[in-house]
Amino acid sequence: MIGILPLALGDLFDSRILGILLRSLLVTLLIFAALGVVLGWALAGSDPCAAFGDMECTLSPAEGGVGAVILTLLALWFLFPAVALGVVCAYVERIAAIVEQRHYPRAATAARSIGAGGAVLLGLRSAARVLIYNLVALPFYVILLFTGVGPLVLFVIVNGIAFGRDLGEMVAARHGDRAERQVWLARTRIERMLIGSTVTALFLVPFVNLVAPILGATMTTHLYLRSRARATEG
Q1: What SS3 state is found at 215?
Q2: Mean of the per-residue pLDDT values for the chain?
Q3: How confident is the model at residue 1, as a pLDDT?
């Protein structure tokens, strides 16, 4: 972790990675904007009070719009990590290729493309895993509310495990066979969890959270290639 963090931070200033960062942010924001439009359309004219009996409170288009904004902001806060990481999945192969070309040229020549279909599959699986992990942890978030910081600590741990797994699978998919990748995933479980937890913690910091998934991808690429080189030398 200590050795790869400076390398990963330096990679963020590569113009190609900066371009990927801007594109991934735009796509992520467009997804939430589309969600807001759909919510506004669904809420306008609806009657949320009907769920409580004979009460009636039909929402006007303006009230539906306000409700859509509030719900979208809540979704942005809760779902941003999963959506942002899912979007970045589409660019992980490019990020890994850039890091390999800069620091590991021999690995870059031996890498294989996972293709657009593979990237989409990894992205969907990543977003689903993050959502499922957090839904399973939801009762524990509620139980730990009285501790103050308990839900925050659990959030970092749960998402650290999920992100570490996701990023590891994405980067390793370009190299080796399935058996080799599974061995590497098992061997680097702690390191990947630390990277995932770092990414999760950065998601909690305004503005810094915008670069969190890209930084996680560069760090994991360095982890994979450096640990693989050590295993080969050993």
Answers
A1: helix
A2: 83
A3: 63
